[in-house]
Amino acid sequence: MDIFSSRRNACTQDERQRIIVAGGAGFLGSHLCDALIKDGHFVVCLDNFLTGRLSNVAHLLDHPMFTLITHDIVARLPDIGQVDQIYNLACAASPPKYQADPLHTFKTNVIGALNLLELADRKGATILQSSTSEVYGDPEINPQPEWYRGCVNTVGPRACYDEGKRAVETLFYEFHKQRGLRTRIARIFNTYGPGMSPSDGRVVSNFVVQALAGEDVTVFGDGSQTRSFCYVSDMLRGLKALMAAPDTVVDPVNLGNPVEFTILELAETVIKTLKSPSRIRFSDLPADDPKLRKPNIERAKRVIGWEPQVTLAQGLALTIPYFAAEPNRYSKALWAAE
User: The domain 18-192+230-258+295-309 belongs to what CATH superfamily?
Assistant: First the structure.
């Protein structure tokens, strides 16, 4: 089975859309650009390349249905012409990246989203926000349903990202309520797959890169904290299904795999899968690192008919060869797990 294949045939000429993907050169954004073009749409990729990589979209540069615009969405947007849909995936998603410049991270979330919302309003476009499970903070309930309001530290090292995303959700709510804008909000849980940067600081890339190099695999805390890992093809299906949902679907929707693993279980699985000589090394848990992370996806099942299909074992088997082929796979990636 080709798990990257679309569930439907490419669109007809009448169905063809012109779609902006902000953050389109990032890990998830570049896969989305590929998928939308495969579906028959014109794609405009906006990226400032602070964390996005040109190599992620290099194969699309000469494609007649792809346009790359190097731009920071915090700044005034250029004249882009017709726009039917906007996916806002802009903003670093891993702690070492978004903590490198917290003020810019917050501006990207709030000012960048505001710029895209104003554009969508002018163009009459539907806009989808990639929010995050981080809006739940260090949750007091598990799994996390969309109605849970979270437990977030507003002045901690993760606040620039967590609170930035929470503020964006408010902006989307108000634009829909006051201006009738067609909005969608996806609360994305840990996503992984080919195309991740080996040094982006996410737990899957950290563990695979270290195990490939035979280095100690660094587990923060005692490894009992949990995460739920969603393979990229499943996440793409969820995002596209949410964008295609009726305009009444305006409340946030969790997108993630509800199968929960401890970080220690993930480390042991990666080492075993690679038959690596690596050993596990424990380090101090970073401040405000969530202890639990598991999505309740009943709303996604009900309103967009979505649930993930790819198991962690299947996803790792598809992801590891990508990292093994990366030229910089042996660089250190000892960052706090997401």
Answer: NAD(P)-binding Rossmann-like Domain (3.40.50.720)
